[in-house]
């Protein structure tokens, strides 16, 4: 059974583009944006909450009141960045995966994203960053599983294909390049990785 083609566009995370309506929301936005900028400038180890507060124009006690540790602040800033990545529903697994990964790459290739990658590439295996990545991966794995569940309901996947193998093969190829070379895959490379993995995961077409 093949996936039905659709012209449905990917949906964007709710609230991602909404302007803050209250002072508290503006403070959260400014602090998290300042955190991303400081991470890009100096990396995780040298990140100073005091400098983040100064850049955001707030008192450092305001920052500590909401994010009591540096790790909590950095995780919140990463989650803020991920709000710019849509959770797609294109009608096919290939379309969903391409839309999802291409959007992640677009965010990573913005000036802020590039600065952040430069600042963190040398510290990717730092224990605190690894712990943050593992916590954030729970939500990302859930998104992947939703895409795979829809594909399975449409009859796209072969019987017995494990979600973890599909996700691991795609993410692993991307992560190895970043950790080994400090570079992101290109959009074309991401598409090629998806196509290679799906050759083994998709059900064969009949007729």
Instruction: Give the overall pLDDT as a whole number.
Output: 85
Spatial shape: elongated
Poorly predicted tracts of residues: 1-16
Count of extended strands? 0
Computed structural class? mainly alpha
CATH second-level architecture of the largest domain? Orthogonal Bundle
CATH topology call of the largest domain: Tetracycline Repressor, domain 2
Radius of gyration: 19 Å
Query: What is the count of structural domains?
Result: 2
Keywords summarizing the entry:
mainly alpha, 207 residues, Arc Repressor Mutant, subunit A, elongated, single chain
Structure report:
This protein has 207 residues and is mainly alpha-helical. It folds into two domains: 49 residues, Arc Repressor Mutant, subunit A; 118 residues, Tetracycline Repressor, domain 2, CATH 1.10.357. It is built from nine helices and no strands. α1 packs across α4, α2 crosses α3 and α5 runs antiparallel to α9. The longest helix is centred in the last third of the chain and has 27 residues. It is elongated, with a radius of gyration of 19 Å. The termini are close together. The N terminus is likely disordered.
Topology:
Blueprint lengths: L22 H20 L6 H8 L3 H7 L3 H13 L10 H16 L2 H11 L5 H27 L9 H19 L5 H15 L6
Helix pairs in contact: 1-2, 1-4, 1-6, 2-3, 4-7, 5-9, 8-9
Task: Summarize the entry for a quick read.
With 207 residues, this protein is mainly α. The protein contains nine helices and no strands.
């Amino acid at each position: 059974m093949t996936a039905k083609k659709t012209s449905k566009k990917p949906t964007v995370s709710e609230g991602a583009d909404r302007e803050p309506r209250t002072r508290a929301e503006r403070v959260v936005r400014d602090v998290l944006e300042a955190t991303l900028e400081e991470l890009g400038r100096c990396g995780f180890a040298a990140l100073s909450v005091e400098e983040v507060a100064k850049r955001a124009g707030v008192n450092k006690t305001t920052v500590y009141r909401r994010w009591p540790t540096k790790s909590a602040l950095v995780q919140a800033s990463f989650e803020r960045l991920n709000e710019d990545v849509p959770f797609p529903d294109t009608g096919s697994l290939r379309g969903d995966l391409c839309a999802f990964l291409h959007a992640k790459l677009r965010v990573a290739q913005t000036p802020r994203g590039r600065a952040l990658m430069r600042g963190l590439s040398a510290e990717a295996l730092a224990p605190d960053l690894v712990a943050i990545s593992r916590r954030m991966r729970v939500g990302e794995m859930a998104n992947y599983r939703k895409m795979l569940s829809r594909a399975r309901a449409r009859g796209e996947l072969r019987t017995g294909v494990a979600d973890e193998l599909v996700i691991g093969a795609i993410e692993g190829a991307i992560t190895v390049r970043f950790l080994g070379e400090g570079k992101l895959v290109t959009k074309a490379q991401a598409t090629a990785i998806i196509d290679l993995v799906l050759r083994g995961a998709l059900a064969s077409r009949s007729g």
